[in-house]
Design brief:
- The chain is α/β, with parallel strands linked by helices and about 325 residues long.
- It has two domains: about 5-60; about 65-175 and about 250-330, Alpha-Beta Complex (2-enoyl-CoA Hydratase, Chain A, domain 1).
- It has eleven helices and twelve strands.
- The strands form three sheets. Strands 1, 4, 5, 6, 7, 9, 10 and 11 form an eight-stranded mixed β-sheet that branches. A two-stranded parallel sheet has the order 2-3.
- Helix 4 (about 125-135) links the parallel strand 4 and strand 5 (about 140-150).
- The radius of gyration is 27 Å and the shape is elongated.
Length: about 325
C-alpha cells in the first residue's frame, strides 16, 4: 500500500515536471536572443511557482501528519479578552481551542490529540467547554503540562486520557476563590453614597460601594462552594481519584515530581518521550505532529504574539458578577 508521504512526493514531482514543461513550451524554443534568455528565466520562475502550488495541493490531499497538537496558553476566557487584540497577551480564547480540537477530530489523518497546557486557569464555563471537546475526540488524548497546569488548566486535563508533566512543572490548584473590593469607607470619605434600586434581594450582592450583609456573604460563598463541588467531581471522575483525596489537596500547587507521586500526574517526561509513547500506541515508527491553530485576522495574530508576559499565581477562574465588583477565580 502506498503511503500518504509517497503519494504526496509523487504529486509534487509530477506537478513540478508539468509546470516546467508548460513553461518551456510557452517561453523557450531556441534562446538565440536576450528575449529568449529572458524566456528561460520566466520559465524557471513559472516552474517554481507551479512546484509551490502543487506542493500545497499535495499537502492538502495527502497530509503526512498523524497527531494534532492544540495549545492552551495563558488565562482562559471565552474570547481571549475581547476584540481583535486580546487584553492579556497570550490569553486563550476557549472557542478557538474548541474549534481546533473539533477540526482535528474531523481530520481523517489525525489519530491522536496532544493538548499542550501552559495556563494558570481561567473562566469556569470556557474551561469546561475545552474539557468536553477533549472528551469528544475520537482517539487517544494526551495532556502535556509544560510550565503551569493549574486550576482551569487542570480542569481541562481531567478530560484527557493521560496527563504528562515535567519535574519542574507547576500542577494543581484544584480550588475556587471569590473576592470583592470593599470601597464603602473610601466612598464615604470622598462623599459618595450607595442608593439601591433593585428587584430581588441578592441582585446587588457584592457591590463594592456597600458593606456585605451576612446573608449576602452566605449566598456568595454558596456559589463558590457549588463551583468547587463541580471542580472536585470533574477531577475525581476524569482522573479516577477519590473525592476526599482531591479535597484534601486544599487547592495546593505541586511541582511535577510530587504531583506524580500523588497520582495527580500520570507520567513525567519530555516532549520527545511523549512522542515515542504516542508512536507505540499508534503502532508506527514515529509520529508526525501538526499544530492546529485558529484562523485569525493578521492584526490579531500580530497583537497576540507581540509580547509574552508572566502571570502571577492566582489568575484563574473569573467571571461571576464582574459588573457588580465580585470576582470568582481559582
Amino acid at each position: 500500500m502506498v503511503s500518504n508521504e509517497t503519494e504526496r512526493l509523487l504529486t509534487v514531482a509530477l506537478g513540478g515536471l508539468a509546470s516546467a514543461a508548460v513553461a518551456v513550451a510557452l517561453f523557450v524554443v531556441y534562446p538565440r536572443t536576450l528575449t529568449d534568455l529572458f524566456g528561460v528565466l520566466v520559465a524557471i520562475a513559472a516552474a517554481l511557482v507551479g512546484l509551490r502550488f502543487t506542493s500545497n495541493i499535495a499537502g492538502s490531499l495527502y497530509p503526512s501528519y498523524d497527531v494534532a497538537e492544540v495549545a492552551v496558553e495563558g488565562p482562559i476566557s471565552r474570547d481571549g479578552g475581547g476584540g481583535p487584540l486580546p487584553t492579556s497577551p497570550g490569553a486563550t480564547p476557549a472557542d478557538d481551542v474548541v474549534d481546533q480540537i473539533d477540526r482535528a477530530d474531523e481530520d481523517d489523518s489525525v489519530d491522536a490529540l496532544l493538548l499542550k497546557l501552559n495556563t494558570p486557569g481561567g473562566e469556569v464555563v470556557p474551561s469546561d467547554d475545552i474539557r468536553l471537546a477533549a472528551e469528544r475526540f475520537d482517539g487517544p488524548t494526551v495532556a502535556y503540562a509544560t510550565d503551569v497546569c493549574a486550576s482551569g488548566g487542570y480542569w481541562i486535563a481531567s478530560g484527557c486520557d493521560e496527563l504528562w508533566a515535567r519535574e519542574g512543572s507547576i500542577v494543581g490548584s484544584i480550588g475556587v476563590i471569590g473576592s470583592r473590593v470593599n470601597a464603602s469607607d473610601l466612598a464615604e470619605k470622598v462623599g459618595l453614597s450607595y442608593e439601591r434600586f433593585a428587584a430581588g434581594e441578592f441582585k446587588d450582592a457584592g457591590t463594592p460601594l456597600k458593606d456585605l450583609e451576612d446573608e449576602e456573604r452566605e449566598y456568595l460563598q454558596g456559589i463558590i462552594d457549588d463551583y468547587y463541588d463541580t471542580f472536585v467531581e470533574r477531577v475525581s471522575d476524569g482522573r479516577d481519584l477519590e473525592p476526599e483525596f482531591v479535597r484534601d489537596t486544599e487547592a495546593r500547587i505541586y511541582l511535577g515530581e510530587q504531583a506524580h507521586e500523588l497520582a495527580l500526574v500520570d507520567h513525567l517526561g519530555t516532549r520527545r518521550e511523549i512522542e515515542a509513547e504516542l508512536a507505540d500506541r499508534l503502532e508506527t515508527d514515529e509520529v508526525v505532529i501538526e499544530e492546529f491553530e485558529p484562523e485569525r485576522p493578521l492584526i490579531a495574530r500580530v497583537g497576540a504574539g507581540a509580547q509574552k508576559v508572566a502571570y502571577a499565581f492566582g489568575a484563574g477562574i473569573a467571571g461571576l458578577g464582574d459588573g457588580r465588583g465580585f470576582r470568582l477565580r481559582s
